[in-house]
Amino acid sequence: MTDRIKQFLADNREDGPRLVVDLDVVRDNYRSFADALPDTRVFYAVKANPAPEILSLLAGLGSCFDTASVAEIELALAAGASPDRVSFGNTIKKEKDIARAFALGVRLYAVDCGAEVEKVARAAPGSKVFCRILCDGAGAEWPLSRKFGCAPDMAADVLERAHALGLVAHGLSFHVGSQQRNPRMWNRALQVSAGIFRDLAERGIQLAMLNLGGGFPTRYLKRVAPVQTYGQSIFRALRRHFGNRIPETIIEPGRGMVGDAGIIEAEVVLISKKSQQDHVRWVYLDIGKFNGLAETMDEMIRYPIRTDCDAEALGPCVLAGPSCDSVDVLYEKDPYLLPVTLEIGAKVLIEGTGAYTTTYSTVGFNGFAPLKSYVI
Amino acid sequence: MTDRIKQFLADNREDGPRLVVDLDVVRDNYRSFADALPDTRVFYAVKANPAPEILSLLAGLGSCFDTASVAEIELALAAGASPDRVSFGNTIKKEKDIARAFALGVRLYAVDCGAEVEKVARAAPGSKVFCRILCDGAGAEWPLSRKFGCAPDMAADVLERAHALGLVAHGLSFHVGSQQRNPRMWNRALQVSAGIFRDLAERGIQLAMLNLGGGFPTRYLKRVAPVQTYGQSIFRALRRHFGNRIPETIIEPGRGMVGDAGIIEAEVVLISKKSQQDHVRWVYLDIGKFNGLAETMDEMIRYPIRTDCDAEALGPCVLAGPSCDSVDVLYEKDPYLLPVTLEIGAKVLIEGTGAYTTTYSTVGFNGFAPLKSYVI
Q: In the Enzyme Commission scheme, what number(s) does this protein have (chains A, B) (predicted)?
């Protein structure tokens, strides 16, 4: 909680859940990334929070942008980024969207298979491509499925195909899993990447770039290492596997850039028990899985929640959202401890909610409005 | 697939996923419910699909409406329903929303605990309340958590409290789980309900109404019994437990009313393999968990998918959405069989998507637009 957010909430009282993002925190986070990895370019993952104020701030600070769709490319350009600072980082693109991106000036595309390479070659001729490789997400709180990337032994073939089709086989990318709490997880992926660099060099193709992905954590309930620790660990691993021929590197922080910059103010709608004998209370908030807190899916992200009575005794609660959907339960398997004096109508503050909240909100499930957002 | 939808899709080609709902099917479904349970009032669950055309059709046919929020109440009234045909069926309501509903003329409210009764007594004095009881959701494909309802032995106390506060202790409700495939699941809940009716009668309070909830299934891949079978089974159970003093009954179909009335047309964006050795293809569509198919969460709802080459040989696929989110995978644990000749750019039809798709769509996750919807 920053003083600026506290002041904003005090000065602008209103009903309904709302997110407030403090740009000062985003600025500090950008500088921490830039300091921790001085030779690495930062591509902010727009999907984490595409608020125009955030994009404009980052564009002004010199950030580049990792985008998932044409709409996100347009947002980045509107915020002041030139197209050479934009990467179309989604490995799943309609060919006509690639053509639109190309028309907008974008020249850097992610791929993970031959069919996608062919689309890029047709719709964005001569562009740079990087191939995403599969990477085991152990240690991440939001581990990645096998959805993105190909097996490392296929990556060289994919990039060789790109080269043959007149594209620039530019590099590799991987992702160690979102909210990755172990800085050493980059080491294994860098070792594998170095092997692919060598393999392609033997085929006469010199890769130039390594995209180290995102995964940098934000602080929820558990302590996380500072970004400097990540930077040092990654640099040591780069040195270990690439010697004195370290390629150009980029990172794609999203959660790590904006997660701790935002706080959601929500309201307790109901507190009840299911039977007279229950010792666990059910606490229902006016925000749930469908209007902002989608990342509580499978109780993966556990947000810190502050109340006005945190000094009181605590008791176990099941925490749920306001909708008529039974899956709209935030924490039940592992009950949440909240003050026993918490009352219906009380405001609560949900911390670390600057990333993956606003755009995850549904258009109006159960008639509830999307999450309101203020960037200050 | 109806001829009208087929014609609409042929006459109106466009890019991007889109839902088309055929009102003729909704009309047929309403009549099936009315015929199957002739003494039961139908309260359409607006949350399933709040499209104004659907609400207007149902209002004209005489349907009542189960609503989850003030916004849904306003939609039902705008569609032509008088306030006495509207139930505020969410057990989790802000007191000021109860007051707004009361001002709009709504006089029927769901409760499941003493605190909610007190809110209704203050904000909607003299109204009717029904108490939701917990019910084991065995047999349902979208089983309910313990989020709604209280233990049956608490319900009489909750309703007695309502009576003491000047409300009308009107009845009980339960829900046997969404997409409930066993018509006999209503029997146990009715037995428990009859016990609570007797208990309250002994305390001098005569309940008048039984809300049998929703749960009526729509046809996905597995065959489901016709609504007549549900009607007969429920009527026999009512007779068994209430004898010749069957109370007024209502049902709240949502999925069963609109599920099979809608079809989503989507496009194959990419087909790939993760390694040369894989025998499972990854098929990526332009629709996923965040722009319409949220009910594939945990692979719970398995939609039938039609292609133009369904007569060809089939092969196993992991099916995934277009976003950069790794959880946006539709079916992986149990791979989906699709034609081996399916190609990138092909259109596919996802059946049974009239319910719980449009409003579950996010406002713009990854820059993808919400699901487009056409009601014809």
A: 4.1.1.17
